[in-house]
Each structure stands twice: as structure tokens, then as C-alpha cells.
């Protein structure tokens, strides 16, 4: 038996499965709560549910996670310092600390200015921010034509600090300096998240005596080594949803289907056709930010089982994730009783933080980073730290000496910086009240429902049924919008929810993945005409998908004449630019460069040349002065290999040293 271990760490649950890789059959599964800020406990608990003797026989391990997705969706990315070279940003970016220095290149990769003239400015910037940020991002004008300035500034910054440094050209070869800059920023913000996840997995594998190599799923449905994932965590931002899609196809045997993945923080919709995940023509969009990351075509909304249900004249769900009341009551035995007698804020001051069901507890910074707090944030944090049990809004008010409206923003900042954990009412709590999905403390959920229902003059069960309906309606309208992107949101809503005599038909199977999905399946079928599929192991579909992906490596070369009518051609690669004496020579060298890049990459996974499929497409622009001499040629190469089968001999044994280049 050729055993593989799949692990998925989501916002609520960490899943682990064992699979016979020779047959694709799931042998065992296990679920445990994801634990914050220390992920090790949750991962260890999930693996404790698997047979210990089998763990020693694991030959291949692959993982996925929604942690990066959730971090970006909730706006909780770690602070990053941004250095712009040769241009001023023309759009919003999720950074507070940035500088602009001279440098950059023109469209042919020729330098415009020398950035070293501003290295003193860079040094001052790094020294003044390195205790405020977790990483640095660098983006230079036309770095895809020539990355030398980004690399020079990166080398200089690395001499000044040990913090991670990310360059824009390392993440995308496409034009679009703003999008490339944004991608670099998000990548830098996610480095601590990915590092902690990988470190946690590695620690538990060592504890369990598992010596296999390890890989992680990227957001295009392919697998990548841990080294690459740590350099480019933004490429794993949709790791969980991509694994869900691949897992759904594997579990159902349907190579064409659409998947709805309901997690703790988000609901994600994606599609696979003829066994190939549908890839977005543009970059991945997450949390409202458009990146240059190649990803599965996906619709994602900040609505999950742990989304915060809060009131402000009407019922709102999300976008922030909170700890469900029913779960908090298990962690803090006196919590349910405390909820009953806690002071409740007036409906006039309710906001996403100040709620009758909002409680807070100190968690500390998730990754032991020294991220500075303002004096007032520190004051609020100290008030929360003074109690071992979760504290209500008015308990904080008494200790701080201010009205809740005065510290609402500071409290929200503490949650974003992960110093404080927010506890509140969620759709999962609503399902507990209704008795549909009961995993934790139903009494605490019922108390919370009564508190919120009083604000809107409803019975608790009535309010919870409405919350369940709202989640189902959101899933239905999101699914319709996925197939009808040209329609406006109000048109989709009218079509799906306000047309009692019509039903939108989806002409492919709809697969549900996620622990609570059965609670929403009936309403979903009422709203849409669909073939709904709940496969066996639907609750661990992401972990299944993590094991069944392939290594897919893409490389490209851009070739242009040096000048109009010239026989000399310039080739632009991620290594820089080269010149060739003819069009044919440039094409031949470009294709060979792509093949070498693909084979070198696949060799890291123990995949020999005969085990790799390569496809190279040549796209030409032949307009203007000549149709015989193209103005531009782009070579696009794709290599595909299956790492879980690498090195397997006739006895079913596997050479682990070649799996991923990482020993855990």
C-alpha cells in the first residue's frame, strides 16, 4: 500500500486523511478544531484520529489551507513596508508605510535612473519601520523587462534587517505595475501566516515520526514544494478552495462539476471541466484586491459558518470571522452563565464590534511578532488581559474608563493585529439553536440567540431560521452570479429570490464540500434547479484534494525586435534580457530556455523528463510595418507531472529524497 497523508487547515477545522495513492481510495479521516494562535495543537489533534501504525508508513504528504485566504478577506494581513522604484502609486494599497525612490527601466529594459543614489533614504526607512512591519515589498517600474533595480534594493534591505523581502518581478511577469505592486504587498503580508502554518505541520510530523516529503497546493490547483510556497505564499491564497475543487472531482468521479465549499470564514465557488480546473483569465481577486496571481476561476464571499452575525437595525452576517458562542462555552466553563447577566449595549450604538453578544479575550500576536500598539490600544489590551475569562464590552468600558464608542476602533485594531480574539454569534450558533448541526454547547448558542432576537423583536428560533435562510440565499445568488457574471447583483437577486414561478437551471452537477453543508442543501434546491451531490467524505474534501493534485510549472519568454526593421531580437525572461542575431535563433533559444526551466523545476520533485508533459504555445503580433517580422512574440510553456508517483518502484516503495526537496 502506498500511503499518502493529506492535511487541510481551515478557519474552524483542521482535517487529516490517509489515502492509498495507488488506488485513490480514502482509508481514514479525522477532524479537529483549528487552534489559534498555536496551530500545532489542532494539527496534532487531527492526526491523533488516524491509526498511529499507519502514520509510520506514509510516503507522501501534501497540505492545503484557507489561512492566507481568510487573512486577506478579513483585512488582517501583517503590516508591510513598501519601497517603490521609479514611479508613484496610482491607486489604493493596503500599506501605511511606503517610500518612493529613483530608478526603474523603460520598455526595453534600459535603466532610467540609478536607485543607489537614494540608498540613504532606504536605510532611514528600514530603520524607522522594522519594528512596525513584518516584511518589505519592493516594486520597480518595468521590472518585468529588467529586474536589476528590484534585486539591488532587495540586497541592500537584507543587509539592514532580517525581515523577509519580496520583489514584484518574482511573482508576476505580466505588465501592470500597480497590480504587480499589490501582489508583492499581499505576498509580503502573508509570509508570517504561511511560515507559521508550515512550521506547525513540520513540528507535528516530526513528533509523529513521519519522514515523508511535503508539498502544498497552490491556488491554480497544482502542487508546489514548501520552499517555493514560503517564497510566494500569495500563490497559495486560494489553496483551500483549489484543493476543495480537485477533491470534489476525485470523490465524485465527475471530471466536470461546480463546487461550493463552505468553510468557517468564506464560501467559495469554482468549476472543473474535463478534469482541468477552470483558470481565471485575469488575476485572482480576494478581499476586493485584484492581484496578478494565476488562480482557479472562483467566486468567494466572506460568509462562512463562523462569520459574525451582528445587528444594526437589521441582521448582518460577516465579513469578520469570530469564535462561535457555542465553542467559547466549551473553552470557558463559566461563559454561558456570564452571558446571561452581562450588560447589553443600547441599540443606538451597535456596530460590528459593539454587540450584546460580543466578548473578547487576549490571544497575543499569532506569530510572536513585535507589532507596535498605540498607547490607547495598549490601554484597552491591558484591560482585556487583566481577566482570564472573556470580557464584555461594558467590562472593558469600566476598566478603561471610557464609553464603548471611544474604544471601538482600538478594539477592532487589536482584533486585526491578533492581540485579541473576538467571540460572537455565528451561523453555526444558529444551527445549534435549531438542532440541525450540534457539535458544541447548544445552551450558549441559545442564550446568544435570545439576546440578539430581543433587539429585532423576534423569537430566537425565528431569527435563527432567518439566518439559515440568509446563508442559503447567499449561496444560491453567488452560484447564479458565477455563471452570469454580466448581470448586476440586484438582477441576480431578483432572478433567484423574487421570481416564484421561475427557476434558474445549472447544467452541471453542483458538489457541496464542507462540514455544515447539509444544513443548507434543501433551501439551495428550492431556489435553483440543480443536481446536488454530497459525496462521501464531503466534510474533508479539501484534505483529499491536497493529495490528488499535480505539479504544474509555467514559464514564458517575451521576444521583440530591437528596433523597427531590425534583424536583432531581444528576449526577456525572469533572468533578464538577451540578444540574438535572428528571429529563428531567438525562438529556438526561447523554447529551449523554457524546457530547461521546466525540467529543472520538475527535477526537484524526482520527476524525470519522460514523466513530464510539456506544451509550448507561440503567440505572435504581426501588425504594423510587416506581417513577416512580428512586432512581438510570446512563448508560453506549461509542464505537468505527478509527484505522488515519483520514485515508486515495482514493490510500491518510494524514494523520499526526491519528492519535494524538503525533509521535515
From TrEMBL:
Reading the lineage from the top rank, the first entry is Archaea
Task: Tell me one Pfam family matched here.
Answer: Hydantoinase_A
Q: Which residues form the Hydantoinase/oxoprolinase N-terminal domain?
A: 5-159
Show the SUPFAM superfamilies listed in the entry.
Actin-like ATPase domain
Q: One biological process GO term for this chain?
A: glutathione metabolic process
GO MF term list: 5-oxoprolinase (ATP-hydrolyzing) activity
Domain Hydantoinase A/oxoprolinase, by residue range, is 180-320
Q: Which GO terms describe its cellular component?
A: cytosol
What is the protein name stated in its UniProt record?
Hydantoinase/oxoprolinase family protein
- Write down the species: Methanolapillus ohkumae
Q: What lineage does UniProt assign to this protein's organism?
A: Archaea, Methanobacteriati, Methanobacteriota, Stenosarchaea group, Methanomicrobia
